[in-house]
UniProtKB/TrEMBL annotation:
The keyword Glycoprotein applies. It is a multi-pass membrane protein. GO terms for cellular component: plasma membrane. Signal peptide: none annotated. The chain crosses the membrane at residues 80-100, 120-138, 145-169, 378-400. InterPro entries: Insect_Ionotropic_Sensory_Rcpt. Its main location: membrane. Keywords: Cell membrane, Glycoprotein, Membrane, Receptor, Transmembrane, Transmembrane helix. The keyword Transmembrane applies. This is Ionotropic receptor.
Length: 402
């Protein structure tokens, strides 16, 4: 839809689409007005000298960590069940062997022909895998209950396991990303702070982020600053070819030095994490792909940690006591009423994020997830009920035989 933006004192003028609107006041009043973008919102910690003109959006400061890549094929079976399910299966097997050992010792004392009613260890495992019919106390009701319960339970578990394993083998499966601060604390990820070496973010004063101080680095900020001080021509480093292209006129700096700086920058981007601000209107990504000139235009996958650090306003602020304050506020109010400011913001900020980040998966094509206890509760309820009932029946049979 074509919009007409009237001339207002030289601040906003021109007729056409929002992307064609000239914003001359950014040059004339750049000391008076401040559009809160990522770098400014994180570095400027004292807002007492600023007045909020209008609130554009809210967002979150989050951790962004490198993608851990794909799991090798021999580890994919571990993704079929959640960690809780694997622990529960292990506990059930241990309890089963303990109960079996108790049954065996009691049967040796009671039954005359004990060897005919007791299975070997090999038969027990075959019994669990539903390969061979067990001979564990088959002459008693206890053995029949155990056989039916374990057969039914392991049929469910083995069917689910084999179906998911087949699916996982047919497509690549990624390692589980870090989604909590506790997981990040236990990891070895180093985070780059795009600040001067003597500065830090205000939230790092919180005792809960004490671990971040030991795992933070300012090396990328210093490298970029060094690169800007060396010359005025944009270059890029290609990790695949190990070469620097577009080298221009540098000030007493060799190509070897420039190449070393860019190579270090590419290594940092690939291996280190970052602290990132993302608006709510663009925060719909899990795995995102970041394309950087420092890596020769190559894209690398990062995960946005779901647990945020803090919420943050995405707004337009004005220097307190500005000479043009009243006029700018009046103009901005008219833009807000017309809905133009919101569209310009979405075009310049939200669409910018969407161009940089691509959504890795959607709801329709999401890869299969591991089964948890809730998904397999029927099998485990039957298993627990069968163990309890068989134990009760066994005690009754034991007392009766005595």
């Amino acid at each position: 839809m074509k919009m007409v933006v009237e001339k207002m004192g030289g601040f906003f003028f021109e007729t056409g689409f929002p992307e064609d609107v000239q914003k001359d006041f950014r040059k004339a009043l750049k000391r008076d007005i401040n559009m809160m973008i990522f770098e400014n919102s994180l570095e400027d910690t004292d807002f007492r000298h600023l007045d909020v003109i209008t609130l554009l959006d809210h967002g979150e400061i989050s951790f962004m960590v490198p993608d851990r890549g794909f799991m090798p094929s021999y580890l994919t079976p571990a993704k079929c069940f959640s960690v809780t399910v694997w622990y529960f299966i292990l506990i059930v097997l241990i309890l089963f062997m303990i109960v079996y050992e108790i049954y065996k010792r009691l049967c040796v004392k009671i039954y005359t022909e004990a060897t005919e009613g007791i299975s070997t260890a090999f038969t027990i495992f075959s019994y669990c895998l539903c390969v061979a019919q067990s001979r564990l106390l088959l002459n008693s009701l206890t053995g029949r209950i155990l056989f039916i319960v374990f057969t039914f339970t392991f049929m469910i578990l083995s069917t689910v396991f084999l179906s998911l394993m087949t699916t996982f083998f047919s497509e690549k499966v990624r390692y589980t990303p870090f989604n909590t601060h506790t997981a990040l604390k236990d990891s070895d990820v180093i985070f780059q702070l795009m600040l001067d070496e003597n500065e830090s973010f205000s939230f790092m004063d919180d005792p809960s982020y004490e671990w971040l101080k030991e795992r933070s680095s300012h090396s990328m900020y210093k490298l970029i600053k060094e690169l800007r001080d060396t010359g005025n021509t944009m270059v890029c480093y290609s990790p695949e070819r190990d070469e620097v292209s577009q080298i221009g006129d540098y000030w007493n700096v060799s190509e070897f030095t420039v190449k070393g700086i860019w190579k270090n920058l590419a290594t940092i981007i690939i291996n280190h994490g970052f602290i990132f601000f993302l608006p709510y209107s663009a925060k719909n990504h899990d795995l995102i792909s970041v394309t950087s000139s420092y890596t020769g235009g190559l894209s690398y996958d990062f995960h946005m940690v779901k647990e945020p650090i803090m919420s943050y306003p995405f707004d337009m602020r004005l220097m307190r006591g500005s000479l043009y304050g009243d006029k700018i506020k009046a103009y901005v109010a008219r833009f807000v009423e017309a809905g133009i400011l919101k569209e310009i913001y979405e075009m310049n900020q939200v669409l910018q994020f969407n161009r940089i980040f691509r959504q890795f998966e959607d709801d329709k094509n999401a890869p299969p997830k591991a089964f948890n206890m809730a998904d397999l509760r029927l099998a485990f309820i039957i298993l627990i009920f069968g163990n309890l009932s068989s134990s009760f029946v066994f005690m009754v049979e034991l007392l009766y035989s005595i």
